[in-house]
Amino acid sequence: MKQKGGRKKGVTFFAFLASLASLAVLADFSWGAPAAPKERPKFDPSKLFMNKPAPNFTLKTFDGKQDITLGEFKGKKVVLINFFATWCQPCYEETPSFVKVYEEYREKGVEFISVDVLEKEGTDVPKALGEYVKQFGVPWPVTIDGEDHEVANLYRIGVRKVLPTNIGIDKNGVVRFYQLGKVEEVWLREQLDFMITGKKPEPTTAPQSIPKPDEVTPTKEVKKEP
């Protein structure tokens, strides 16, 4: 009788273990398997600049004819800094709407400054920028960052290497938006109106989501209109 009872207890114990194993499988738990590494969150450089004074800089225009100093616009104009490169397809795609907006808002006290950064080695930058300005009829100053990438580093453009990057600065010299990737015309108008009037726009639109670097660094040559 004792043997039968012992066997029964043994069977019950093993049945209990089998049940635990089944529950583990159902819970998608792997015995002894190492935990999957957590993806490291990507750094958002906008957190360093939002609602803070914009770092000052002075750059020459691509033709070497003019020095542009950001600080000279403080107390006078709202400024959009457009970081771009001649190999960047999205940069070219947003330029026509930028020209349209600039022509309208320049009379409202708005200035645009384009800063060419992160160019590929061997690029004749002044020539490429001259073609860019001619193609789109760009009316605002187009500057070139130095070989030491001083301004790109100042605004942490190289951290994510996402182009275009557009930064809005109000008349007080304070950064009000820091946007990675191409922006839509409607959203840009809303942000400029906000910086001019101080009235927040209605939540009808939103900025583009932050793109992945490979979405803004095309390997093929940028298509240019004849």
Distance between the termini: 99 Å
Outline, from the CA principal axes? globular
Question: In CATH, what is the homologous superfamily of the largest domain?
Answer: Glutaredoxin
Structural class: alpha/beta
Strand order of the largest sheet: 5-4-3-6-7
- Average pLDDT level: 81
In a few lines, what is going on in this structure?
With 226 residues, this protein is of the alpha/beta class.
Detailed description of the structure:
- The strands form two sheets. Strands 5-4-3-6-7 form a five-stranded mixed β-sheet.
- Helix 2 (89-105) packs across helix 6 (185-197).
- Helix content is 34%, strand content 15%.
- By secondary structure, the chain is of the alpha/beta class.
- The chain has helices at residues 2-26, 89-105, 125-136, 150-154, 157-160, 185-197; strands spanning 58-60, 67-69, 78-84, 110-116, 142-144, 165-169, 175-180.
- The protein folds into two domains: 1-31; 45-215, Glutaredoxin (3-Layer(aba) Sandwich).
- A hairpin with a 5-residue loop joins strand 6 (165-169) and strand 7.
- The protein is built from six helices and seven strands; from the N terminus they run αβββαβαβααββα.
Helices, strands, pairings?
Layout: H1 2-26, E1 58-60, E2 67-69, E3 78-84, H2 89-105, E4 110-116, H3 125-136, E5 142-144, H4 150-154, H5 157-160, E6 165-169, E7 175-180, H6 185-197
Parallel strand pairs: 3-4, 4-5
Antiparallel strand pairs: 1-2, 3-6, 6-7
Helix pairs in contact: 2-6
Features:
226 residues, alpha/beta, Glutaredoxin, 2 domains, two-stranded antiparallel ribbon, 34% helix, globular, disordered C terminus
